[in-house]
Amino acid sequence: MGYKSDIEIAQSVEMQPITEIAKTAGIDEKYLEQYGKYKAKIDNSLLSDSTKENGKLILVTAITPTPAGEGKTTTTIGLADGMRKIGKNVMVALREPSLGPVFGVKGGAAGGGYAQVVPMEDINLHFTGDFHAIGAANNLLAAMLDNHIYHGNALNIDPRRITWKRCVDMNDRQLRFVADGLGGRVNGTPREDGYDITVASEIMAVFCLASDIEDLKRRLSNIIVGYTYDEKPVTAGDLKAVGAMAALLKDAIKPNLVQTLEGTPALVHGGPFANIAHGCNSVIATRMAMKLGDYAVTEAGFGADLGAEKFLDIKCRMAGLTPDAVVIVATIRALKMHGGLAKTELGEENLEALEKGLPNLLRHVSNIKNVYGLPSVVAVNRFPTDTDAEVELIIAKCRELGVNVVLSNVWAEGGNGGVELAKEVVRLCEEETPKFTFSYEDDLSLEEKIEAVVKKVYGGVGINILPAAKKELVKLEALGFVKCPVCIAKTQYSFSDDMTKLGAPEGFTVSVKNVKVSAGAGFVVVLTGDIMTMPGLPKVPAAEKIDVDANGVISGLF
Question: Is 274 tagged catalytic?
């Protein structure tokens, strides 16, 4: 068999009608809103109507990412398929991909090989329109804000202190900084403005943390869009924008049902940026997966220091969730890169480089076990170039921490390649009791919360708060945001705030450049570097290879 791309594999498998997938998941047809033959939305009333006990919650996270790749989404999907192979009732809950990365560098984000969710083209391109609805709600608020200023500015908003940006779900660096309202008085008030990518909009974070429509409206109402001339916050509620924004989101807030290549039911819903926001699918979809399945498998973006930390310290705190087990995904290739090897040298056995890179994995494992008190397993995504000696080294080092290692071959074999991992995850859920704790408590100051994450999770020695951030922290605490969790925006490529520090660096401090409140989402964003909220396209964008034929068949997505 010749090499098949992900999209060719996805197109070669015959999908089941979504009504059949709903039956597998135990969803009554009255809750199903079909979007064509293979996609549907599920009405949120299922959550309140169901009397079934919640299933076990499994989080899939990973080591610090490198260009060599880890395969977190692939593992999440393959694990769920593996659990079905051993007779378990399981649901997957994943994030929706953003169009920006699809057309930029990454290509699609629906798993890979024989562990994918389908229809992968639809999921990667528009899907059911959720992100468009979120962008429309964001831009309605922006339009109402500028319109308010144009018509007399009764709220006394200072145009120089507007914090709300417009958004578009595309990588477009040209829009990062714009001047608008030009062309004379009838065309608005001239000011500096800018665009974020839709997944970085606070509405995306609000959407993913809301528990229902009422909670969504409460959170939307709290969004701060700017400040008055006397430095008082102005909210979406003050602008009377909330009802209309919620109306735009009323269908989007229902989770989307699709399937894996092997017919496992999957919910794909929401997708905030994992370094600027909290990087997890919606609370509603996670709860629904737990309500429908005996096991719900979900993932969080980037390495465990970002995705898992935010999943546990923000999402679980707000939604009252406790994970039963955590899977930490690693590749030997990526660990050798952490040990200093160049990307071109990863195919050769190199135990020395692996030993040097292993502390990255071990710190993530230790954090899950010792900081958060959760049972875990390491899933090594096996590549053909990995040698037995390299695998044995990882197994031995993780055993010292009391954590098992399982080889995962889901990319090549689908659910069959995830059976061993499935058995270990089920064992963890049944035999181990989580002693779940957060990395910090609510009543600490914002500064103490940031310091706790840096010391306990990143392994740093402390923080250096720059003057602009210090001033903002004082202001936010005075405004009553001290009880909020912190959402630390930093590079995904290192435990530290310096992307060149691979492995498990020590002795570093993290510089806090600025902080801003996401009052609707309910967290304080801590900026430790130049985090891009509007990416650009690369020199050769993935978009150049994407095409569609006369029959509507898409190619080049991967």
Answer: yes
Read off the tokens for 193.
């403005």
Q: Which of 274, 296, 422, 452 is catalytic?
A: 274
**Rounded CA gap, 101 and 201, in Å?**
16
Alpha-carbon distance of 219 to 207, in angstroms, equals: 9
- List, for residues 491-545, the tens digit of each pLDDT value: 999 999 999 999 999 999 999 999 999 999 999 999 998 878 899 999 999 899 8
Of 39, 41, 56, 72, catalytic: 72
Cα 457 versus chain centre, distance: 18
Of the residues 4, 52, 106, 343, only one is catalytic, namely 106
Residue 514 is encoded by which pair of tokens? Answer: 């600025």
Query: What is the per-residue pLDDT across 97-115, written as a single tens digit (0 to 9) for each?
Result: 989 888 887 656 788 889 9
- 164 flagged as catalytic: no
Contact 503, 359 (CB under 8 A): yes
To the query of whether residue 369 is one of the catalytic residues in this protein, the response is no
**pLDDT tens-place string over residues 166-214:** 999 999 999 999 999 999 999 999 999 999 999 999 999 999 999 999 9
Choosing from 273, 411, 438, 523, the catalytic residue is 411
Confidence (pTM): 0.95
* Calpha distance 325→436 (Å, rounded): 10
84 included as an active-site residue:
no
Nearest Cα to 524, choosing from 455, 469, 461?
469
